[in-house]
Amino acid sequence: MIYGNLVSVGIEYLQKKWFIKHTWLYVLFHGFLGLLNGLFFQETTLALAGMVVALFYAFIDRWLYVRDKVQQSPKMFFLFPVLACGLLWGYFQIISEPLPPFSMEEAVNFATAGNGTVTDVFPKNVGKWDEMIHGYHVERETSAKEIGKEKYIITFTERWNKGKEKGSWFFSYEVERGSLTANGGEGAYPPYYK
């Protein structure tokens, strides 16, 4: 933006001095100088994109200049982007296929796909399993509850006992499509994790 605005100011200064009636030169210089930025970095894609953007900028700038000369209101200039965005949004809404429902199984998969987090030791599906860890009988459970449309609470509970020593803890997440938020937890941390 800085480069483009400086170039534009420079070209407008030159146009007022030497080629005031040649609007096509104004547009041509914009295109050429937009191309230079990409050539400087030896990136063809950047060069072409720079040229296209510079030409587009020059055309809009000249169009606004002419409209201002004939004292036409610039309302359409400000209204057009809003109208274009609204029409494009509507078009893409119509042609896009709706997303399939976000199921409880998908929510559990999303919550247990921790890769190196504490959820790695819990069942990857709703259910329980038992094992012995350092002499402790450990029961780990993953449970899910729907709390709204495509919104779930996934709870991870761990219970352990060894003789008279026993305890439990849990933590939960609120899960929506693409979103995982801590929901709370409580209990004593298991002694065999230390």
Can you walk through the features of this model?
This protein is of the alpha+beta class. Helices cover 46% and strands 27% of the residues. Strands 1-2-3-4-5 form a five-stranded antiparallel sheet. A hairpin with a 2-residue loop joins strand 3 and strand 4 (165-176). Helix 1 (2-17) packs antiparallel against helix 2 (23-40) and helix 2 (23-40) runs antiparallel to helix 3 (44-69). The protein is elongated and about 95 Å long. The mean pLDDT is 82.
DSSP E strands, number: 5
Strand content: 25-35%
Q: How far apart are the termini? A: 55 Å
> What is the overall silhouette?
elongated
Helix content estimate? 40-55%
Assign the structural class, choosing from mainly alpha, mainly beta, alpha/beta, alpha+beta, or little secondary structure. Answer: alpha+beta
Main sheet overview:
5 strands, antiparallel
Give the overall pLDDT as a whole number: 82
Order of helices and strands: HHHHHEEEEE
Q: Count up the helices.
A: 5
Low-confidence stretches: none
Strand order of the largest sheet: 1-2-3-4-5
Cα-based radius of gyration, to the nearest Å: 31 Å
